[in-house]
């Protein structure tokens, strides 16, 4: 036991001397989690809270176009800027640039008349099918109601689809109101009362949206819940630059041979290293999670909400830490120089992080890449954390993701043991 404690003290001192390794294991992930979470949180706010600036080029100015303007304001998606001066594409482009608008909607002269003609034509057909006369209403040829929508090149395709859906919904409301008034006028020979119109147009089905979680809380995940666990895992696996380099240095300076001649052999030294770096991994979890829970609210970011099952959180952290240690151990055993460990280790972790969903969510990957996520240990570690933070899972819900992590850990430990035996280091 004394030999193990002495080895632990030795490895702890070596760790404190590795300033670069400590920076990579602590400072870098803390900076990443702050920057990435801030950027993603701002993106979520743009999607959920911010309105899309829309310049409403109204050359018509009649009743229907004013109703459309009112409908667009009621949608709540647009920050509406009304402009009646632009008359061509060049003017529209200049106005959108001056107003920092992402969308422009151009209504030509005669728009209201064309909508009215469309409504009259459709109403006439419906009333004729019902065998009801259309009274004295004079019908005209159905008008063309194509509208020009202008987009800023920075607006993504997903935003364009959302904008087009909102525009079509507003146009449909305007045209439906016109048709309802015509039908009511034909049947009752009077204008439709406003309260009747409101009842008919706003009698819609309400969608109650909920987030599915294991505890039924229905909490909506945010950027913090996604990024803090993800970059904590990234920090754990980046210990390859410290632990792997430590193993290589001991091989190169002859420490392996001296440790091998000591009672207890080198296996005790390997075990002590794993204990020290497991403690480092748990400290990383505590530090980064504490920043998410207590620092984020003071810089305008959502606070990290820890799962209710803290035992499960501890288990996931320990298993993930052991997996990261096993990868670093394996790489250190098979590397011959520190450059190999640092170079290949850093690049491989970034690649595994990309495949595992740390850098890019798995659902956003092409199908050809998504099949490789299963080979990334970071993917399974991330899935285990997500089960706790996003789905409010318990320890019993984690086994489908913990088993792959344990299997990968056992494989890497076995591979490292074989490498030590082949090199006559144990």
Question: How would you describe this protein?
Answer:
This protein is mainly alpha-helical and 426 residues long. The protein has helices at residues 2-17, 19-48, 63-75, 89-98, 111-129, 157-188, 194-201, 223-237, 240-252, 255-261, 265-295, 310-334, 338-356, 367-370, 377-389, 399-422, and strands at 52-58, 78-83, 103-107, 148-151. It has a four-stranded mixed beta sheet, with helices on both faces. Strand 1, helix 3 and strand 2 (78-83) form a beta-alpha-beta unit. Helix 12 packs parallel to helix 16 (399-422). The chain is elongated. The model is unreliable at 135-140 (pLDDT under 50).
Head-to-tail CA distance between termini:
19 Å
Tell the overall outline: elongated
Q: Low-confidence spans: pLDDT under 50, at least 5 residues? A: 135-140
Question: Which structural category do the helix and sheet elements fall into?
Answer: mainly alpha
The run of helices and strands is HHEHEHEHEHHHHHHHHHHH
Helix content range: 55-70%
**Integer average pLDDT:** 80
Number of strands: 4
Could you give the order of strands across the largest sheet?
2-1-3-4
* Rg value: 32 Å
User: Please, how many domains?
Assistant: 2
Strand content: 5-15%
Describe how the helices and strands are arranged.
Blueprint: H1 2-17, H2 19-48, E1 52-58, H3 63-75, E2 78-83, H4 89-98, E3 103-107, H5 111-129, E4 148-151, H6 157-188, H7 194-201, H8 223-237, H9 240-252, H10 255-261, H11 265-295, H12 310-334, H13 338-356, H14 367-370, H15 377-389, H16 399-422
Parallel strand pairs: 1-2, 1-3
Antiparallel strand pairs: 3-4
Helix pairs in contact: 1-11, 2-8, 2-11, 3-6, 5-6, 8-11, 8-15, 9-12, 9-13, 11-12, 12-15, 12-16, 13-15, 15-16
């Amino acid at each position: 036991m004394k030999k193990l404690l002495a080895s632990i003290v030795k490895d702890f001192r070596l760790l404190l001397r590795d300033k670069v390794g400590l920076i990579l294991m602590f400072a870098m992930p803390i900076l990443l989690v702050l920057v990435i979470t801030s950027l993603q949180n701002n993106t979520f706010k743009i999607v959920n809270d911010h309105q899309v600036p829309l310049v409403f080029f109204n050359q018509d100015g009649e009743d229907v176009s004013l109703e459309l303007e009112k409908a667009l304001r009621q949608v709540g998606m647009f920050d509406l800027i009304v402009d009646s001066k632009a008359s061509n594409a060049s003017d529209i482009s200049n106005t959108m640039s001056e107003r920092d608008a992402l969308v422009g909607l151009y209504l030509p002269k005669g728009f209201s008349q064309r909508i009215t003609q469309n409504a009259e034509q459709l109403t006439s057909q419906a009333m004729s099918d019902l065998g009801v006369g259309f009274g004295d209403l004079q019908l005209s040829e159905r008008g063309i109601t194509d509208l020009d929508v202008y987009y800023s090149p920075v607006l993504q395709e997903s935003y364009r689809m959302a904008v087009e859906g909102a525009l079509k919904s507003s146009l449909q409301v305007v045209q439906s109101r016109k048709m309802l008034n015509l039908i009511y006028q034909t049947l009752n020979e009077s204008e439709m009362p406003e309260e009747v119109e409101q009842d008919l147009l706003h009698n819609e089905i309400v969608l109650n949206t909920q987030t599915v979680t294991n505890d039924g809380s229905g909490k909506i995940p945010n950027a913090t819940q996604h990024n803090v666990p993800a970059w904590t895992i990234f920090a754990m696996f980046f210990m390859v630059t410290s632990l792997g380099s430590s193993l290589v240095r001991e091989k190169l300076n002859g420490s392996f041979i001296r440790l091998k001649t000591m009672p207890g052999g080198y296996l005790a030294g390997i075990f002590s290293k794993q204990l020290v770096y497991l403690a480092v991994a748990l400290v990383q979890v505590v530090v980064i999670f504490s920043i998410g829970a207590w620092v984020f609210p003071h810089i305008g970011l959502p606070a990290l909400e820890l799962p209710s099952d803290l035992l499960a959180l501890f288990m996931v952290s320990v298993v993930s830490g052991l997996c990261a240690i096993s990868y670093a151990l394996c790489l250190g055993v098979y590397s011959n120089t520190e450059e190999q460990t640092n170079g290949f280790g850093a690049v491989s972790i970034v690649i595994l992080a990309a495949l595992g969903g740390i850098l890019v969510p798995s659902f956003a990957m092409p199908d050809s890449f998504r099949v490789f996520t299963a080979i990334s240990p970071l993917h399974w570690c991330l899935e285990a954390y997500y089960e706790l933070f996003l789905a409010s899972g318990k320890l019993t819900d984690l086994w489908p993701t913990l088993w792959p992590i344990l299997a990968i850990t056992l494989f890497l430990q076995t591979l490292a043991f074989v490498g030590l035996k082949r090199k006559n280091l144990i």
